[in-house]
From TrEMBL:
Tree of life domain: Bacteria
Pathway stated in the Swiss-Prot or TrEMBL entry: Glycan metabolism; pectin degradation; 2-dehydro-3-deoxy-D-gluconate from pectin: step 4/5
Amino acids binding Zn(2+): 200, 202, 207, 249
Protein's gene: kduI
Family: Belongs to the KduI family.
UniProt source species: Marisediminitalea aggregata
Protein name per UniProt: 4-deoxy-L-threo-5-hexosulose-uronate ketol-isomerase
UniProt key word Metal-binding: yes
The protein's role, per its UniProt record: Catalyzes the isomerization of 5-dehydro-4-deoxy-D-glucuronate to 3-deoxy-D-glycero-2,5-hexodiulosonate.
InterPro entries per UniProt: KduI (IPR007045), KduI/IolB_isomerase (IPR021120), KduI_N (IPR027449), RmlC-like_jellyroll (IPR014710), RmlC_Cupin_sf (IPR011051)
GO molecular function terms attached to this record: 4-deoxy-L-threo-5-hexosulose-uronate ketol-isomerase activity; zinc ion binding
Length: 282
């Protein structure tokens, strides 16, 4: 593994442990605050569903998807699938010789079995920012680019409840075949700040929220924890929160923003969730 790839391991913790966490412990456990490092591939290997969250930002030279010691595999995708969403300048991903051009907010699914994956930016001065999610895979499906026109779009919320938003379902089983990975991009309309309200949890899979397009000086307060024992983490632009299966997730920003959600687990039903209205939260 070269010095252009960095990773860390986060072990799973349960509800009882988290009840005693202070702010620093909560952030160290669940906040991903080293994403989008120029000229580097960065990963967090999480023990929730063996889910991995990461980024690749190629600048003046391409970046390779290298295997990690933690994977004990010759190639990164020997036993995994990979979801990629670009949130930066135009870029290209080459997988086993096949080129996929990705503009901003376009996605790419790479199946189990790809051996060589390389990330490129079209303009190093405006680099692509590839946001990465990966999960274990039992079957080799087909690589597929998902453009904006391919997404299944849900229009939810309202201005009255400050949560008017478009949910772009990019990697769900009605758009692309995957083993367990699902990803999408939600953008809040101007004047709306609440995401995923009512809050929900799904005990059959984990979820990771990556917040971006947040103006300088602004923040999102991400809520997590059990419905009757909530916690919060303040998140800056291009940071993510790892949400365990036992935790709710919702958030409110000091301005409008966008976020990418990524999930893995035993259920591919997007609507499989347990909702908790605001008056039930504590």
């Amino acid at each position: 593994m070269s010095n252009k790839t960095e990773y860390e391991v986060r072990y799973a913790v349960g509800q009882r442990e988290v009840k005693g966490y202070d702010t620093t412990e909560l952030r160290d456990t669940f906040l991903a605050d080293k994403l989008m490092q120029p000229g580097k591939v960065y990963w967090i290997y999480s023990h929730y569903e063996r889910f991995m969250v990461g980024s690749a930002v190629p600048t003046d030279s391409p970046l390779a998807l290298e295997t990690l010691d933690a994977l004990k595999a010759e190639h990164f995708l020997d036993r995994r699938e990979l979801g990629i969403i670009n949130v930066g300048g135009d870029g290209t991903v080459v997988a086993d010789g096949e080129e996929f051009a990705l503009a901003a907010e376009e996605a790419l699914y790479l199946a189990k079995g790809n051996k060589s994956v390389t990330f490129y930016s079209n303009d190093p001065a405006k680099p692509a920012k590839f946001y990465l999610n990966s999960a274990p895979a039992h079957h080799a499906f087909t690589n597929k680019k998902i453009g904006r026109e391919d997404a299944k779009v849900l229009h939810l919320g309202s201005q009255e409840t400050s949560n008017e938003r478009d949910i772009n379902q990019l990697m769900i089983n009605t758009v692309v075949e995957t083993c367990q990975l699902q990803m999408g991009l939600t953008r809040l309309n101007p004047g709306s700040v609440w995401n995923t309200m009512p809050a929900h949890q799904h005990d059959r899979r984990n979820e990771v929220y990556f917040y971006f397009d947040l103006d300088d000086g602004q923040a999102v307060c991400h809520f997590m924890g059990e419905p009757q024992e909530t916690r919060h983490i303040f998140v800056q632009n291009e940071q993510a929160v790892l949400s365990p299966p036992w935790s709710i997730h919702c958030g409110v920003g000091t301005s409008n923003y966008a976020f990418i959600w990524g999930m893995a687990g035993e259920n591919l039903d997007y609507g499989d969730m347990d909702s908790f209205p605001p008056n039930e939260l504590r």
